[in-house]
Amino acid sequence: MKKLSMIVMLVFFVPCLVSGQAAAEPESKSQSTSTTATITAARDYEDPRIRKLAEILVNYSVNLKKGEKILLSIINENSVPLAKAIIDEVYRSGGIPFLEMGDERLYRALNLDSTAERYQLMLSWDTLKLQSMNALIFISGNENSSELADVPAEKMNLLGKYWGEPLNLIVDKLKWSALRVPSSSMAQAAGMSTEAFTDFYFRVCTMDYSRLEKAMEPLARLMKTTDKVRIVGPGTNLTFSIKGIPVVACSGHVNLPDGELYTAPVKNSVNGTLTINQPSLWFGITYQNIRLEFKDGKIIKAVANNAEKLNQVLDIDEGARYLGEFSFGLNPHIKKMMNDLLFDEKICGSFHLAIGTSYPNADNGNHSALHWDLVCIQSPEYGGGEIWFDGKLIRKDGLFVLPELLGLNPENLK
Fold first, then answer.
1. Which of the listed residues 164, 187, 277, 280 has the most CB atoms within 10 Å of its CB?
2. Where are the domains of the chain?
3. What is the pTM of this model?
4. CATH of 6-205, one of 3.40.1830.10, 3.30.230.10, 3.40.50.720, 3.40.50.150
5. What confidence score (pLDDT) does residue 45 get?
6. In Å, what is the CA distance from 107 to each residue of 11, 34, 138, 193, 244?
7. What pLDDT shows up at residue 191?
8. Of 184, 74, 47, 222, whose CA–CA distance to 136 is shortest?
9. What are the distances in angstroms from CA 3 to CA 82, 113, 137, 358, 365?
10. Residues of the chain with pLDDT under 50
11. CA nearest 387: which of 267, 239, 258, 235?
């Protein structure tokens, strides 16, 4: 299942059940005339794009059925309009909605002095709660992506080990979806006006994912029969095997926005050097110029602008120095970094490799409290690059070159 990563998502999972009611009979959908594209309008309950997004989340992403229970977990007031629309849509679909709310500043306070015992108690509580649900939608509306920057690394490591990693196993048994809502801070991080970003957000999140899903099929078939992968680019010459590892297409059923196709390297097969040409945000700290050296699957050297903290993260447990995922970014509307992983890992012309645990549906045997996606863009403006499968070039400078894969290039998906 994909993905925030789940551990990152669950840092903000709120231990407070707010409400839940029996399902009501479906009603006719209210009509709206608002078309304004600003952030203010995006928070308006009557913005038709919010209604459309709620319908996609309930009826396509988690495919909620009559009588099923769904937990809606939201952060901050920015999420309230979309949450309201989702609750309305759940009732129309005959489902039973539950809600929990929280605030990123409170999560920082909770984690600053937390202990392993407290995280274990949280795990018991949240496990009981989630085991009574059929589905989960998590909406982040955080205004400050660096809110956890000063939480000590050892506290975040405890969170992953005693709560995040075991809770992932519970969440993966549910139908779940995760997304953010547009905010001024997200627009600023993307280098866009709030109006332009809001238009971009709804265009990306409500695209025709069924069309993308069909276009992914030839690449998925090729990956299933591939053994050796080689990635070449500035500062990168990396080889590994994906033989025998399942391949998973992501087309709007878990994350929004979506658009990636992933598997995992065979754990001990990774050798060479990987240079990440994009910044990567992890628990409030932005890492740049990450360079990793691998031998027989293990990261034996790691450097970045903050090498000390990077290596602290990699030392969380034994599995944190191995890879757990290899993925293509395929969303034609996402072309540059926003320092927001939900968007960045889907950039067309990119790939990403995750250090740490693999996913149960693409399991390479590596398990860790860490799952950190590192995104590298291979389009010409970022230095270009090549991806080879079993000695055959399949993508060059961000564009697929095999005839059967041309349908995945951006001009054929919009």
1. 164
2. 6-205, 209-412
3. 0.76
4. 3.40.1830.10
5. 52
6. 8, 35, 15, 29, 40
7. 86
8. 74
9. 20, 28, 12, 11, 18
10. 1, 3-43
11. 239
- State pLDDT tens for residues 254-304: 889 999 999 999 999 999 999 999 999 887 788 999 999 999 999 999 999
Structure tokens at 116: 């392993």
Q: Which two tokens stand for residue 245?
A: 């590892």
